[in-house]
Amino acid sequence: MTYETVLVERKGRTALVTLNRPKALNALNLQVMNEVVAATEELDRDPGIGCIVLTGSEKAFAAGADIKEMRPRSYMDMYLTDWFTAWDRLGALRTPTVAAVSGYALGGGCELAMLCDILLASDTAVFGQPEIKLGVIPGIGGSQRLTRAVGKAKAMELCLTGRTMDAAEAERAGLVSRVVPAAELLGEALAVAETVAGMSAPVAMMAKEAVNRAFETTLAEGVRFERRLFHAVFAVADQKEGMGAFVEKRPPVFGHR
Ligand code: CAA
């Protein structure tokens, strides 16, 4: 399929999805939402793809949901169209995802980054949930995912004052896994994606499922879930290959989908 607001490139087993609405700093209107979801779901169905990188421009990963599009809407518009709900499908992809964030990741932009599995930031990244300054609150999971990522005190401050945090603060707070110089961001993100895509595809899916379960259940249930998946990987040929390669002192060659 072809898209107007996202660019899709395939590089071996990794895919790069770039938000491409530069005049509006990648503001997330309905078209962007539908195209990001369609493009990533198409990649998710492709057995040749093992990891998806989502990025924006140097100035803006995404400056939020589209304020001009939302401004005239009524409660009934928002409710009946179930505004923003399609974004949940990004979090439900089975293929691991990496957000490569440079510049502004505000409001829906921060929420979009948090919907990805690994979050890498450039030293120019700026994160925040400034919706309160527009008289609204986050609507793509920001109040929940930011709180789980950085804790109540900082999430409350960001959501109640609208103040932003720079990349260094985001890394200290645990929102991002790593900060790299802006010029190296995409290269690093693609290298991480290539590493993930080189692993056993079903085992990577199980690892992703297990980590995500930590956000949705009690510790005891989460550990039980992990244990069941751990037992299940012994039914995957890649377990024999990975452990066999270690013992035979050679690199493993994992199967894919
Ligand atoms: N929606 C719609 N258009 C946006 C936008 C947004 N979120 N962010 C930027 N734009 C547009 C601007 O209107 C401007 O368009 P025009 O040239 O037609 O006027 C263009 O992008 C460039 O923006 P600026 O001139 O403002 O650029 P700047 O460099 O001076 O400032 C900025 C950059 C600080 C990011 C500023 O654009 C800004 O504050 N944007 C809004 C940030 C925001 O409040 N995001 C939250 C949105 S609500 C939300 O996301 C709800 C949710 O939970 C999902």
TrEMBL record:
- Write down the EC number: 4.2.1.17
Q: Give the originating organism.
A: Streptomyces albireticuli
What would be an example GO MF term here?
3-hydroxyacyl-CoA dehydratase activity
Q: Which UniProt keywords apply?
A: Fatty acid metabolism, Lipid metabolism, Lyase
Protein name listed in UniProt: Probable enoyl-CoA hydratase echA8
| GO aspect biological process, one term | fatty acid beta-oxidation
**Which SUPFAM superfamilies does the record associate with it?**
ClpP/crotonase (SSF52096)
**Entry's Gene3D superfamilies?**
2-enoyl-CoA Hydratase, Chain A, domain 1 (3.90.226.10), Lyase 2-enoyl-coa Hydratase, Chain A, domain 2 (1.10.12.10)
Q: What class of enzyme is it?
A: lyase
* Enzymatic reactions: a (3S)-3-hydroxyacyl-CoA = a (2E)-enoyl-CoA + H2O; a 4-saturated-(3S)-3-hydroxyacyl-CoA = a (3E)-enoyl-CoA + H2O
Q: Which family does it belong to?
A: Belongs to the enoyl-CoA hydratase/isomerase family.
Q: Which InterPro entries match?
A: ClpP/crotonase-like_dom_sf (IPR029045), Enoyl-CoA_hyd/isom_CS (IPR018376), Enoyl-CoA_hydra/iso (IPR001753), Enoyl-CoA_hydra_C (IPR014748)
Q: Name one Pfam family in it.
A: ECH_1
Q: Where on the tree of life does the source sit, at the highest rank?
A: Bacteria
Tell me, in a sentence or two, what this protein's role is.
Answer: Could possibly oxidize fatty acids using specific components.
